[in-house]
Amino acid sequence: MIKIPYDKSEITLEIDDPKAILTAKMHNLIPDKTAEEIILEALTNPIDSLPLEKLAEGKQTITIITSDHTRAVPSKITLPIILSLLRKGNPQANIRIIIATGLHRATSVQEQRAMFGDEIVDKEQIFINDANDDSQFIDLGELPSGAKCEINKLAVECDLLISEGFIEPHFFAGFSGGRKSVLPGISSRETINENHCFRAIANPLSVTGVLQDNPVHKDMLVAAEKAKLAFILNVALNSKKQVLAAFAGEMHSAHAKGVEYVTNCSRCDKILGDVVITGNGGYPLDQNLYQTPKAMATAELCTKPGGIIIMCAACVDGVGGENFERIMLGGSPAEIENKLSKIPPKETIPEMWNAQVLVRILKDHKIILVSGMEPQLISKMNMIPANNLEEALTEARQIKGDNAEIVVIPDGVSVLCKD
Q1: Which helix (H) or strand (E) covers residue 174, if one does?
Q2: Active-site residues: which are they?
Q3: Residues 315 and 260 placed together within one structural domain of the fold
């Protein structure tokens, strides 16, 4: 029985003899301490940094960057500890929390309560980054790519900037976490768009697990440096979203330690199949179609030329972006890619980067989508709709034959496939 995360549960499938099941080692790890113990230990012994209490001393205004509703950061646990330590060091500090939405929709109050708990929502100052509101941003100069660096003024106009998040493989930034809280998290629409331009995403080093000379990562790192991100807390999670490890301290050093841990725990040997079945990690990352190229990019690495990817994502929020939807309805995969390739970096369309990755995959592979989305809409986007996983596998075998070799990657977001 194979289990694939799907929304807030999972879907199962019986396959007699799959060629391989690729699962990150960290998904099966069980924490030997409570999340509170792991996080407090990391914050008490930060990497290349003074502890938060000391950093808070004498600071009038402190800004905490936290993740939005699309990320599984355990903020109900982390934020109370961070706030307690900051106020232990400086009870008078003016502390503000900013939700790093990037270009995602605003996080609702109901979602905030689920993420942070009622006490934090009712008592703390919470702001939401709006990438489309020019008045929220300050121009900090130029990034290595030549893009403008515009960062939310709540982060720039403070005496201490810290962030929380989690680290996992990322399909074009190499890894999530660390500097990514600033760019795209609390950056302007123009800055995000140019960082995610066609040229940057098409770079062969803008891929999962690669930071060295990755142009997307370079811009993100410099943006965080310009914003003076002083301290981070990043966690690593297993498949049950339990905290396995935490990394706190100076931005570069703490993130590097976290990346090392996640790399060691998520690396799998690449095995090719005629049909690759994957999921997008379940809720909250499979809320919409827009996020699914993250897992599809992993499946792509394991799919033989002309093979089929079965993508399982609930998509309870539908497509997930108006621009993404419009782009994906713009013709064949090759036609869409050709249009996107002609868009100059400074004219990058929001959300086109995920469409760029998706049409790249669609040029070489059929994608069968198991979701709650309207089948006609899926078909118009050059994918094959399926009501359930069994139906999808039947369809795939009709195309590739009953003897097709099947590889399963239950959570394509968390696996780092290497030759």
Answers
A1: strand 174-175
A2: 104, 170
A3: no
